[in-house]
């Protein structure tokens, strides 16, 4: 049992002096064990544990650490020792200072963020020059159902302006904006009834509450694709997007309109999720990984399912059901993952060796000599097998790697079995992980052509992990769903060497009219 803060607060010099020698030795042992464990924890970094690279402070990175080492060589050793002694003395003085109770954090209120009900609204003040007009006529009489004649008397009864990006002219660069005035006409039928054209609007959807999808929009589909690209791929906030549009193009859009556009784009892309899943389950290899994600303070997980040309992101709980629901009809290819227990349901899978090597590096750097020795030996055996796999891809040995390196594999197995019930928790955990997934881990030894890492999934998540640090996650279920869908489309377009915002523009344009969505960009022929 570890010493807790309650225990440490009772320990001081006077208490230690009163202890008998045998009790003092016992206390010292417990303190030593705790110090070693704490030192090992402090020594953890992305190179010797499963900690992500973003957890490392900027001043701890390699380039700056090397600069600090060069600077340290110019300092006088005696001055450094004196400074260290002074710091130690100051630390000892601070340790005996009384604990000061900090003031409690202010209590939160029930007031919701954003514009409050009943507050004054603001209308659009920027006047734009209309560059084109589009009339919408009803096709049939709403009363008698007869087709309306093209020359029948008509007039506009309402309409809206749409700002969009005009089609690019060959040989030109840059973006050209257009303003189209859409007019809804009312037409007089021969029966005397006046029929009115209506803009198309998607019916309500319980999965997308407060997210409307339809034609009546200020932001055109291609401009909407640009807003999605700026918000997700460029990781800009709504306010930064608004500022950029104003500074670069002189276009004024409110943050509310930008947010509505991004959510609408998510709903428009929703049918593509089934298409992405269908592509993924047919792939021969699937890389899977997950990272934490906050939804209005609720801890969820961002899942990444990555193949060579398709990427699917999902936001939800870290459970087996989450992955099973994504792969509804089952996945029969090779699943590549880390050691999370959920993935063990798939027998045809591979383990990420860099994850294992980092854990062995952590054992090798342990302050416990016995644990460090076991960690170094296991790390050396795994490195030998890894080098042999890379070499076999170029020049396969005639007898096969399992035969040539049978002694190394047997030694690795012996170390795992010998320390399966070890008293050291970190060593016991690592060797049990090896034993649980023994065949999965060593499968590439018999099949050297198989991948050794899960880098594809980790690299796919890296961009969105940075977005999480900036935005602190999402604020609603619809926002999480929209974020995951749009991120999936963007990453899939990037994998297929296609323009993400242009494709999203075609998707939004089709969805606003209730038409079938365009197919995903084709896989490049060179692939």
From TrEMBL:
Q: Which residues cross the membrane?
A: none
Q: Tell me which InterPro entries the record gives.
A: Transposase-related (IPR052344), Transposase_IS66_central (IPR004291)
**What are the Transposase IS66 central domain coordinates in residue numbering?**
221-481
Where do Acidic residues bias regions lie? 65-81
Q: Where is this region: Disordered?
A: 40-124
Per UniProt, the ranges with Polar residues bias are: 43-57
The residue ranges flagged as biased composition, category Basic and acidic residues, are 82-96
Check the record and name the Pfam families matching this protein.
DDE_Tnp_IS66
Instruction: Write the protein's name.
Output: IS66 family transposase
| Origin organism lineage | Bacteria, Pseudomonadati, Pseudomonadota, Betaproteobacteria, Candidatus Accumulibacter
């Amino acid at each position: 049992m570890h010493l807790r803060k309650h225990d440490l607060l009772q320990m001081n010099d006077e208490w230690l002096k009163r202890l008998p020698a045998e009790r003092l030795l016992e206390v010292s042992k417990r303190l030593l064990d705790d110090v070693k464990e704490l030192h090992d924890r402090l020594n953890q970094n992305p190179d010797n544990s499963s900690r992500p690279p973003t957890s490392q402070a900027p001043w701890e990175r390699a380039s700056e650490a090397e600069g600090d080492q060069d600077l340290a060589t110019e300092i006088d050793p005696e001055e450094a020792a004196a400074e260290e002694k002074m710091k130690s003395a100051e630390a000892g003085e601070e340790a005996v200072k009384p604990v000061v109770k900090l003031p409690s954090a202010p209590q939160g209120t029930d007031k919701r963020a954003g514009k409050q009900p009943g507050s004054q609204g603001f209308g659009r003040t920027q006047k734009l020059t209309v560059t084109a007009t589009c009339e919408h006529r009803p096709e049939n009489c709403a009363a008698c159902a007869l087709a309306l004649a093209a020359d029948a008397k008509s007039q506009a009864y309402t309409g809206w302006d749409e700002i969009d990006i005009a089609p690019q002219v060959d040989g030109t660069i840059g973006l050209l904006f257009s303003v189209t005035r859409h007019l809804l006409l009312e037409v007089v039928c021969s029966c005397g009834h006046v029929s009115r054209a209506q803009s198309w609007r998607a019916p309500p959807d319980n999965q997308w509450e407060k997210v409307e999808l339809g034609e009546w929009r200020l932001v055109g589909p291609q401009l909407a694709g640009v807003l999605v690209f700026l918000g997700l791929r460029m990781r800009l906030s709504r306010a930064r997007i608004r500022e950029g549009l104003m500074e670069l193009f002189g276009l004024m859009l409110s943050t509310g309109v930008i947010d509505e556009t991004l959510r609408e784009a998510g709903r428009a892309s929703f049918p593509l999720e089934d298409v992405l899943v269908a592509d993924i389950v047919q792939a021969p290899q699937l890389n899977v990984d997950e990272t934490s994600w906050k939804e209005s303070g609720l801890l969820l997980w961002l899942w990444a399912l990555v193949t060579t040309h398709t990427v699917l992101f999902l936001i939800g709980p870290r459970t087996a059901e989450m992955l099973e629901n994504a792969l509804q009809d089952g996945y029969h290819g090779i699943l590549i993952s880390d050691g999370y227990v959920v993935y063990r349901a798939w027998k045809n899978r591979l383990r990420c060796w860099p994850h294992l090597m980092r854990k062995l590096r952590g054992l090798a750097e342990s302050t416990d000599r016995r644990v460090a020795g076991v960690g170094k030996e296991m790390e050396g055996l795994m490195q030998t097998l890894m080098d042999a796999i890379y070499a076999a891809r170029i020049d396969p040995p005639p007898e096969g790697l399992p035969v040539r390196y049978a002694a190394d594999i047997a030694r690795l197995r012996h170390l795992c079995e010998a320390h399966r019930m070890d008293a050291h928790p970190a060593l016991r955990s690592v060797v049990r992980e090896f034993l649980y997934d023994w065949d999965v881990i060593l499968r590439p030894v018999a099949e050297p052509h198989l991948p050794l890492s899960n880098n594809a999934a980790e690299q796919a998540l890296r961009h969105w992990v940075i977005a999480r640090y900036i935005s602190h996650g999402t604020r609603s279920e619809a926002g999480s769903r929209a974020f995951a869908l749009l991120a999936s489309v963007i990453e899939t377009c990037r994998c297929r060497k296609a323009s993400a915002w242009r494709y999203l523009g075609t998707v939004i344009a089709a969805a606003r009219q209730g038409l079938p969505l365009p197919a995903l960009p084709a896989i490049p022929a060179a692939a």
